[in-house]
Amino acid sequence: MKKVIVACDSFKGTMSSVRVYEIIKEVLTSKHGAEVIGVPMADGGEGTVDAFLCALGGEMKYTTVKSPLMRDIEGFYGVLPDGTAVIELAAASGITIEKERDAVNTTSYGTGQLILKAIESGAKKVILGIGGSATTDGGMGCTAALGAKFLDKNGIEVPLTGKGLSMVETVDLSGIPQLVKDTEITVLCDVDNPLYGTNGAAYVYSPQKGADTKTVEFLDAGLKNLAEKTEKALGKDYSQEKGAGAAGGLGFGMISFLGASLVSGSECILTMTDFERKAKEADLVITGEGKMDFQSVMGKVPFAVAKKSSGTKVIAVVGLNEAKLSDIQKNGISEVYETNYLHLPFSQIKDRAEDMLRETAEKILI
To answer: Which domains does the chain have, with CATH numbers?
Structure first.
């Protein structure tokens, strides 16, 4: 019996990484009688919790939290067999939660509530995916939910939103409980933007969250102010750290206020699932993503998987391929199967994506 590992990213807009694995497994088991092992990949965005639970086991927990506009919603997090909590910002502070796009008045408070709930329930380690945020609050909301205070010149708490960034005069972390401080927090982050400046959180990401040109400038100035007041409180400037600008500055907040470490999402999953050992024992590794292009070759999921595959043959199943085959093969992937090989518009293939993947999986030789 051939052993196959499926370690694909999501096909964004159509299928989660778990669903991609399920479909490929269904085809390869029925057609070839293969043993198919799933290591669904995630970049820290929507689907991160499901990917970890599918790969490692565990259970989902549900709790009421605040949405980006401070409405009550049901949030969730995962608990792995070793007690580690896996949280995705998208479950509480994600851009798809609200109908409105509002970079100024949204907060990451709900994400902090998820973290606190997981820690109070016994988690000593937290893995936090921060992709897909609706917010540009520098992490103030999230940290305030954990006990921090951000005060204006009169000692009054500022709004925990983009609006409050420019009002901050004092950063007070004394209210964060020791239980939280003792928790090991790992943040999954696959971008390296600084907190502010033309490559920072406001300029690069807030336009997709509803910010116009004036708002972008306002938010950028606010993020710079938060960085300066934080440096005054802590004696160190974290604003230029790689990933500080991720998720509207939540990367900065996690590093500076909570001592978190930022790591690649794919690297974290590959390490935690003991992927290299599994790959050595497999006959074939199947990886993939929705769209493969020149950026993919620079270290996105398929090539991170190929790098860790210990000499086992690696093929990729992708929605669309725009990368050169020579570059792909040079980086460890021998073949590419395209589900959308006719390169049809997304609107035409969105509802057929699962069937197209199933048809493509039928063509894989193992």
So the answer is: 3-39+275-361 (3.40.50.10350), 48-265 (3.90.1510.10)
